Amino acid sequence: MLLEVQHVRKEFQNRTLALTDASFSVSQGDFVSVIGPSGAGKTTLFRILNGSLRCDGGAILVNGVHFESADRKTRRAIQTTIGTIYQDFALVENATCRQNVLNACLPDMAFLPAVCGFFGKERVAEADALLDRVGLADKVHEPVKNLSGGQKQRVAIARALMRHPALLLADEPVA
Question: Of 33, 39, 68, 92, which sees the most CB atoms within 10 A?
């Protein structure tokens, strides 16, 4: 099982109960949609699954490893297998499409190459191929601020795919 969500619960400090008993499992190759009205806890679940928010009860297992109680190194290793497409895309508006896709590589890079923006020819070629794959080959050098909402979403998809994720999470993917 790639992902197991077992009785996950989340309550915020203001006593808002966002999740009460979320449970499901996802195998390799599965597509799962979480639907519900605004305020139902979909984004909260998304943030718990990508590790940016902790749950208050239950368990998240990724490939059998308890994500919530894993040590920092193991937790980070799990997070590198998860691709994330945010509802607001989380792109750098003044950067080009290529630069935004390459930003996915920053966590794996040494300090100096990351600061200098030296990604190497292979990574640049892969970023360009992913932009082509999402229909934006002609926008490689275009600043993201000049794109439509749908084009920005495709840049965010290419950026997530740049990580070669085993698990891809998308918050409001068809908004």
Answer: 68
Q: What's the number of domains the chain is made of?
A: 2
Domain-located, residue 144: yes
Least confident of 13-17, 18-22, 80-84, 170-174: 170-174
Same structural domain for residues 106 and 61? no
Length of the chain: 175
d(CA 96, CA 93): 8
- Under the banding of pLDDT at 50, 70 and 90, the label for residue 16 is confident
Q: What is the pLDDT of residues 143-170, one digit of tens each?
A: 999 999 999 999 999 999 999 999 999 9
Range of the domain at 108: 97-162
Q: Is 88 exposed, middle or buried (0-12, 13-18, 19+ CB in 10 A)?
A: exposed
- Alpha-carbon distance of 4 to 47, in angstroms, equals 15
Residues 54, 117 within the same domain: no
Cβ neighbours around 100 below 10 Å, total: 24
Same-domain pairing of 11 and 69: yes
Q: pTM for the full model?
A: 0.85
CATH number for the domain harbouring residue 44: 3.40.50.300
Contact by Cβ (8 Å): 83, 165: yes
The tokens of 135 are what? 């229909």
